[in-house]
Amino acid sequence: MRLNVIERGPESADAADRDAPPVVLVHGLFGRARNMGFFQKRLALRRRVLAVDVRSHGDSPHGPMLYPEMAADLAETLEALGATPAVVAGHSMGGKLSMVLALTRPELVSRLLVADMPPAPTGHGNALLARKLLHLPMPETLTRVGADALLADISPSQDVRNLLLQNLRLGDNPGWSIGLREIVDSMPFIEGWPEAMSALRYDGPSLFVAGENSPYLQLKHLKTMDVLFPGHKLIVVEGAGHWLHAEKPAEFLQIVSDFIGLES
């Protein structure tokens, strides 16, 4: 499956880091490519940067969300665009997808960055949230203010509601543009981790970035990380939770820039 991609790059050849691999940004659950715009614009001052909509998200086609198939989507898309090998950076669900791509197609990944996600099963309320969204009754017409009020009964977090709002078609006959049915049906796989990955490993440079206050990446995951990604390093962002790139954007941008060798 070919994915929708937003691509940016240096405005002039003189500004580009010649021969440097492109950077690929992979969003998390309920996200989309344009969520990564802050980082894409800044990294694109020197690098070719592609932000992707994973399947059932953004403007990409919908389909069952199993990580091997999603990794095949990403591989097909990057190869078609001549964007390999690439530095692949993913957050949350996008981090799992990025890890699976690196493990199954290591020749396509020059470096791997995973933001706040371990190579392990994770479940922190997303399945219940997705089911509530699927069964949310829609009025005949809907404004953004009305949609925010509608979602307030489902999530008290304004950050989460802002993420969800981008997936709603507003106006007359409102509805979800995201593949919510596919997401709900696939949630055991989204929150899981493919057992087949335990027989693989990625030997390239890899960096895990964890939020200090996040429940996702924990000490118990380090042994698995050592086995699957023997070259990995770990950075903990103090004072940040799971949405570390949104909570600490300048710090996260510096971490990414340092990892890919981008001069500030």
From TrEMBL:
It comes from the Bacteria. Keywords: Hydrolase. Pfam families: Abhydrolase_6. Signal peptide: none annotated. Residues 23-254 form the AB hydrolase-1 domain. GO terms for molecular function: hydrolase activity. The keyword NAD does not apply. InterPro entries: AB_hydrolase_1 (IPR000073), AB_hydrolase_fold (IPR029058), Epox_hydrolase-like (IPR000639). This is Alpha/beta fold hydrolase. It comes from Endosaccharibacter trunci.
